[in-house]
Amino acid sequence: MSAAEEVVAEGHQAVEAVPKRAMTLGTGTSLVVLAALLIVPMFVKNFVIFQMTMLLIYGLAVLALNILTGGSGQFSLGQSAFYAVGAYTSAVLMEHANINYALTIPISAVVCFGFGYLFGKPALRLSGVYLALATFALATAMPQLLKLNFLEHWTGGVQGLVVTKPDAPFGLPMSQDTWLYYFTLIVTIAIYMLSVNLLRSRSGRAFMAIRDNEIAASSMGVNVALYKTLAFGVSAAITGIAGSLGAIAVQFVAPDSYTITLAISLFLGMVVGGVGWLPGSFVGAAFIIFVPNMAESISKGLSGAVFGVLLFLVIYLVPHGARQIAIIGQQLVGKFKKN
Fold first, then answer.
1. Angle in degrees, CA 25, 29, 31, rounded to 5
2. CDD domains, from UniProt (predicted)?
3. Which of 100, 120, 136, 264 has its CA 20 to 30 A from that of 304?
4. Of 94-108, 232-246, 293-307, which range is least confident?
């Protein structure tokens, strides 16, 4: 059963299977969300705009993991490594080669695609927990690799690199944070639409066939090795773009910013948002950004414990994440319209 169909309501009562079009939001809901994303920054402070920018960036990284895990069924705990490669690619190109920040983003995507594709090749022999352990090792090793002496001239070593935040182009009357938010929003919308089209395409159907039954997919003529490595490459490319945008937004890159904690947070965001449901990627990103702050406001000394309790409640009440809430809400609206 596909991730878009395997939804169980509270009390273990089966709910109606979700059609393929429900992998994204409806047209009306999408327009409302887009209008809110365009208008809200005009009425809030720069710090809130920065938080919204980071929500979009982490949402992209979670979406990339969703394509890999929810799309092709491959588990990964190494997304922080691809995020770091994207961030450092942009930082090095901006600070050492004086390349425009916008041009560094597609370069990061290409570099990370190659990195992910090459990593996916040997990973073909692994699956399940063994693949998760391999990607875990990658995430653990990346911060140490970035600290190597022969790379220190480029990466800044332990101290990292400071990145210059760009000004709004063409003399537009907006702050740096506001411009970067709208720039990130444009990139996010473009990647989101491409991701939806990818999963609806022949390649996307191949991903899902491999996820559901690898042997059956192979017997139907799907090139399993090609599509599994392609899924790794695409996921790494999108994560690299998120890393580039994150480096520009935060204005700083350092090895210890991209530890295994980041990888686990992204995986957590995917689970909370709903595995295989692309809009849930941004719900999961909001969870990993705002809920720790809420936990700290409740108890600074026990913020970790409070966060754990909140996470447990979310997983217990809605085991399929935000996707489950959206499906139940959609069904209630449908019944209301019939009545």
1. 110
2. TM_PBP1_LivM_like
3. 136
4. 293-307
What are the CB-based long-range contacts (under 8 Å, 24+) for 199-206? 199/23, 199/67, 199/71, 199/278, 200/20, 200/23, 203/227, 203/230, 204/71
Tell the residue number behind the tokens 């190659």, with chain if given: 114
pLDDT reading at 18 higher than 60:
no
Tell whether the torsion through CA atoms of 30, 32, 38 and 43 is positive or negative: negative
Radius of gyration of the chain (CA): 20
Alpha carbons 235 and 13: distance in angstroms, whole number:
34
Decide: helix, strand or coil at residue 8: strand
pLDDT, residue 155, reads: 86
* Beta bridge partners of residue 253, listed in sequence order: 161
- Give the span between the Cα atoms of 113 and 12, in whole angstroms: 40
The residue count of the chain comes to: 339
Could you say which DSSP state residue 44 is in?
S
Our CA dihedral for 55, 70, 123, 81, rounded to 10 degrees, sits at: 0
The domain made up of 20-338 has a fold known as: ABC transporter involved in vitamin B12 uptake, BtuC (1.10.3470)
